[in-house]
Amino acid sequence: MGTQYPYPQAQDAAAGDGGGLSLPWEAVPLSRLGEKILIETALKHTGGRKGEAAELLGWGRNTLTRKLKTLLPEMAEE
């Protein structure tokens, strides 16, 4: 028995039919939530030092600042 995929599109993508992977809209908020959790965790770990948090995440400081403004505006100005 083959691998079971939660969405038919995932099985098509795994089969390599060239159709690409198209996830339902429910998957999008999880990605944003995941980034928010990563950012919050990195900032806690670095004591709020954005430069160090960005380095820990493998991002530039400008990228972290942009993501903060979008995902966590309440933390962007701190």
Task: Quickly describe the structure.
The protein has 78 residues and is mostly helical. The protein has helices at 8-15, 27-45, 50-57, 61-71, 73-76.
Provide key terms for this protein.
single chain; 78 residues; mainly alpha; 5 helices; globular; HTH_Fis; DNA binding HTH domain-containing protein; Homeodomain-like_sf; sequence-specific DNA binding
How does this structure look, described?
The protein is mainly alpha-helical and 78 residues long. It has a domain of 48 residues. Helix content is 64%, strand content 0%. It is built from five helices and no strands. Helix 2 packs across helix 3 and helix 3 crosses helix 4. It starts with 7 loop residues before the first helix and ends with a helix.
Number of helices: 5
Q: How much helicity do the residues have?
A: 55-70%
Count the strands? 0
Note the beta-strand portion.
under 5%
Q: Ranges with pLDDT <50 over ≥5 residues?
A: 9-14
Shape: globular
Q: What is the overall pLDDT average?
A: 76
Biggest sheet architecture: none
